Structure formats: C-alpha cells, structure tokens
Amino acid sequence: MGDPVEPPEGTPDGGSGNEDEYRSVVFDESFVRAARIQELSARERLGGNYPRAVRRRGLFGSLSRQALALLLLVVLAFAAAVYFGISSPQSQSGRPSGSQLTVSLVALAPSSAVTPVDDPNAPFAGLPASYRDGIVGLGTPGGSATTHFTRAEVIRALDTVQRYLNASSLAPGTLVRGETADARRLITPGQQTQYDQSMATPSDDQHHEATGWLVRFDPGKVALAVDTVKAVGAMTIDEAGAGVLVVDTDHTFVYALRPAEAPGGPVTLHTVRRALRFEFDRADLAAGRLRLVDSVVQTGPTPCNSRLAAYLQPILTGTTPPAVTDPGDHSRSAWAICAVLR
User: Where are the membrane-spanning stretches (predicted)?
Assistant: First the structure.
C-alpha cells in the first residue's frame, strides 16, 4: 500500500507531497466565520447576473439579525434624543412657556364734578397716612424661602418686581414722556414681541393694551404737577409648581396732574389701582427678568366712554360726564368696563 499521507493518484506535479509548508497558515473557526466573501448559491450562478463565483458581503454582512436590530434601535434612540433636545421649548431662547399677558381695564367714572386740590404745593395733603412716597409705598417684603425656591431666589424676584413697578408706575419718563425702554428691559424675551406690539399699535383686545404694561398719560394733554407719586399696597409670594415662582402685587397709585398746556393750571388727583401677577422660572431669575401674565387696572376719575388702550384718560377738572354705556354703540370695544369712583 502507498504512503497514507500521499493521495491515491500520487503527488501532483510540482507539489512536494508534504503539507508542512502549509502548516504555518492556520485558519481558525472565528477567522472563517468573519470572512468577507461569500460563495454564490447554485441559483445565483445559473442566473448569469454575477461575473464572479463569489460576492463580497456588505458592511453588516457578518452581523447576525439580532445584532443588526439592536444597532438600529440604538441609532433610532440617539436620533430621537437629539431631535427632542433641539426642539424642546425649554431649550429655545424665546421661552417662556405660554405666558401671554391678559389685561382688564376698568374706567372709574366720578360720581360728582371733579375739582382741583386746595393747595397745589401740597397736592397729597388729604390722603391717608398709609400712602407713602414712591418705592417706599410699594411695601416690598423681606422675602423668605418657599418649598422649591431659596430665600436668595425669592429676594431676587421681589427686587425685579420692585424695579418693574418703579419703571412702569413711578418714573416720570414713563408717565408723561412716552418712554418704554426701561420697563421692556425687565420683561422676559418671550413677551417682548407682545410688549412691542402693545406700544406700537395698542389694541383693546385684552392682550395689547399699552396701559396693561405701563401707567401712561398722553403727553399732549397731561403733565405731572409734581414728580412724586403716592403709593400703598403689598406683594405676596407663591409657587405654581416646582419650577415657577409667583409674585402677586396689588397697589394703588395717586398722581398729581395738570393740563399740559397750562403750567400754572389747576392740579387734580388721579388714582390708578394695578393688580398684577408676575411669574419667574429659574432662567428668568438668573437673568433678572420677569413675566407679567395678568394685569387688572382701575383708573379714575375717567369718562366711561374713554379709549384706554394707548393712554389713561383722566378728567382734570370740570363737569362729570355721564357714567353710561350704550350697548348699541359698536364703535366702542365690547371689552370696556366702567364703574363709579368713590
């Protein structure tokens, strides 16, 4: 019998007849499985569409179906995280979240004729002692921690509200010179478009009244007799969930006014009550900005038929107009509300 190592037909021509020269090339099982070529099936060969007897596997050809499914899930999860991270309203600089100012204006018609003060040099002499000068009359509390906000955060919110009330209710530039920038700087960017629209084109629609944001008188008709404004009222702090701090303010302001065209003319008092609600999230607090979400304004003495969206309309002196509202007069806004001033 022949050597069991040799093939039955003998050693091929040119061969050594010995496998030692191939023993250094060893293909283990993992290498074979990972091979990037795949032999065509018999049907594919008969089809004649493939020029080679083998085909290269794709990039994922060596992966199992389970591995491909897992990889696809990971890619989809990553894409979803990126999408929601970019499109989330909290990540946009135009926050805040759904906080449009709502305004209610109430004209207070006098029950009798409006008369000037007795002493123009001391126009507030008849007011109760509780009315104080300017910022002192705001009654800003010291502030204390709430459930979800520290004392420092509460104090920062109260300080921002006080600065806004000063800019919007006490500053002569705002009251009679048409200035609007100081108050605007304290409003969160998400409300500034509404604020700008209210100043540029005031509308009696409960959202775009300039007088919902500011106390302002028509400088062509009204001037301040003195720059001092008397005020009385209070602020309260609350929360609207873990992420929103709320400050409610309720103040009455008294202004000494005279006709713009008569520097030495009679001086009358005008009263404005402002009940406001401010909201802060942590981004607002960090930036020293606020959101004014509710503004209720009572102003008098004022004619019931006044248009109050652009400017407050005080009665300076003279006969009291009738405190009536004609429901058939469609030239006036249906939102107009009137009451009688005490």
Answer: 67-86
